[in-house]
Amino acid sequence: MGLLNRRQWGAAAAGLMFAAGQQSATAQGVTVPRPATLPPKLVGTRIVIAVEPRIGLSNLPLTVAEQRNFFREEGLDVELREFADLGQAMAAVQAKAAHAMCVPFAQLLAPAVRAMNWQSFVVQGRAPQVVLGVSHKTVPGFRGAGDLRGRRVGLRAKDPLAQRVLMAFLQREQVKEEEVQILPQTSAGAALLAFRGGQLDALCHADPMMTLLEQQGELRVAVDTRSLSGTTEVFGGPVPVGCLSAPAEFVEQFPRVTQALTDAVVHALKWLQTAGPSDLIKTVPESHFQGDRAIYLATVERSRDAWTADGLMPRGGPEAVNRVGEGATLPPAELARHFTNAFALKAKARFRA
């Protein structure tokens, strides 16, 4: 999709105002009945959502919504467009080459981003799903962060979540950042080779690679934010991630599109609550398994607690992010300006999530 000009945005607005959108039946029981025929499009414009590479699990609900036609059932033609990192994804939205993006809530609070007036409207996760593991081979007697002084710690490059997990762990045990050697890892493959080859003493990275190393007995988990309890231990509360966000102008101008996007994501979150291995194998693209279905499925099972049940901003989440954020702590009113639960509350009621 090229840049969207004023005429294209106008066409989208007209579609929102006049399209004969259909209301899906209220959910009954565990699953929501899928319509026999898909509803007419809510808007003629294809909605582009900018995302990071979907190898990890933070955007699995989005993938489910795409693969099971939940977006289409809401009358939307949605493209999940992958970008190399969050910076490029955000730039695409700012240039109107995409309409929305998935981002950790912490990113919306960064000083350079706050002035852009972004708003999260549905939340996929409440835990970063990042693991800090220490090598059994090079640090066999690991006891705590103090043992990492002078050590080489691999960090997933351009990943603010991984950086925050590492920094929170070091700060909690009063180890300064400059006391460890932080080595950015540009790819999961390079990180894996470096860790196994002894060039890294510890690694802070997302799954499914960390589950693979753990199951093969190659690392000791020092920090585990794949669960709500592990996240709370490090950050003092849940950490909202995978926040479907857009400039506040888009949310205000296109509330029906925003609601339809939210409904599809909440539908996917509800589906994931009861999805078994066979359901996932049938739904998730084969490329996401990276050649090892067993590890991927084990990772999903470990991470079930990391997703929200209803798409709402988790209580205490913005405050937890604020405590470990960059610069001065923000006042409550400033935190509230960057998210809304209005759309997720409607979806929660509709799907009984």
From TrEMBL:
Keyword set includes Signal: yes
InterPro entries from the UniProt entry: SsuA/THI5
Gene Ontology CC terms: periplasmic space
SUPFAM superfamilies: Periplasmic binding protein-like II (SSF53850)
Record bears the keyword Nucleotidyltransferase: no
SsuA/THI5-like domain: residues covered: 61-214
Localization of this protein: Periplasm
Main location: periplasm
Residues spanning the signal sequence: 1-27
Keywords: Signal
Family to which the UniProt record says this protein belongs: Belongs to the bacterial solute-binding protein SsuA/TauA family.
Protein name, as recorded: Twin-arginine translocation pathway signal protein
